[in-house]
Amino acid sequence: MRQKLIRLSLVLAALSLIYFFQKHGKTLIASIVDLPLYFHVLLLVNLGIWCWASNVHILSLTGIDAYSILDDESKYASPDIETPTRREGGSSGGRPGWSYNNVYGLACGFTVATVVSLWLFFHMMDLYGEEGAEFVPGLTYAAFVVLTVWPWNFFFRSERARFLGTCSRIAFGGIRSDVPFSDIILADILTSFSRVLGDLQPIFYDLALDGSLSDALPIGGNRDTSKHATIEHSYGTIWQTISPLLICLPFLFRLRQCIAEYNLSTDLPARKRHMANAIKYLSSLPVIMSSFAINYLRIHGERSGNTIDPINFEQTLNRAVGVWIIFSIINSLYSLYWDIAIDWSLLTPHKTLTSRTLLRLSWTLKVALLYALVRATVYRDPMPGS
Fold first, then answer.
1. What's the confidence (pLDDT) of residue 153?
2. Arithmetic mean of pLDDT, 185-205
3. Which residue intervals of 283-339 are DSSP H helices?
4. Which among 199, 31, 43 is positioned nearest to 117, based on CA atoms?
5. Which of 43, 111, 138, 283 fits 207 for a cystine, CB–CB 3.0-4.6 Å?
6. 18-50 pLDDT tens trace
7. How would you write 31-100 as a 3-class SS string?
8. How many CA within 13 A on the CB side of residue 18?
């Protein structure tokens, strides 16, 4: 019965979105692209929950015991440990905390809330303009936070409690703390959402400080910077560092986890692997900070106008771009090497492989190389707003 309600709610939400956007004379994709930044983040969060539910569901369908792998005490992060299969009569779809049915329910609930928020936002925007309608996404963000941390037995408490517990260990663990595999998975997911975390700074500025997203973003088009200057004067230059710090957080979390695994491991090859992994995440930080420096120089150059020497400014900006390019190349090449040689062990020879298996693996290697190359380079552009 619950699955039928989830499917029905999802279908109704999708049909409502399509009808609403078509009514305004735009395709669904074009309408989503034109949405304000705060709705982009909400939609990406929804997509992440749906993808997580699908992952756990697929693991269950293939006979892998997702509950055992993702349990808080699980140590299945090592590639040398056999992946557990589902025990007879057991199902990760019904186990508390990692039930894919319940995660689907969470995704459906957040999606319906987002669709309702979109409908109310556009309705209020037609009446009062965009600034007059911004209280709708503000209330939506507040509702999402309340639903996530709600302590009582409501709205899939087991899944929410496990998520919050994992987040707590990721954020506050030490360099000698145990690192369950579930913590590694979530921290890796957060690195993919690092740009989304960085977007929370301009969103907060827009919704809570009565600003404008076009003013809050580091660069982008012609805009009035007086509001941004007022905020900067009120909160200090530290305000401008919030976004890059938020982007850095997931990489710092993974760096701490790698150091903890290095300290706790007694096997020399495993220690080398964890240290190499830590270097990969450490190499991401200069890329983020140098891209922040580029945007910082640009926005202050635009604001200063004719009061600065354009030649010196251009030289300084070019040096910052050069530093960013160097760090980006280093991080991309190292990440590519890590994925191919260390994480996937595709360059390690295996004496027991037949010629037919080697032929299949050669195609696998080509596809993996292409995927790793795209993964290592696709997000190397400067920070949000560039």
1. 86
2. 92
3. 284-304, 310-337
4. 43
5. 138
6. 666 666 666 667 777 888 999 999 999 999 999
7. HHHCCCHHHHHHHHHHHHHHHHHHHHHHHHHCCECHHHHHCCCCCCCCCCCCCCECCCCCCCCCCCCCCH
8. 6
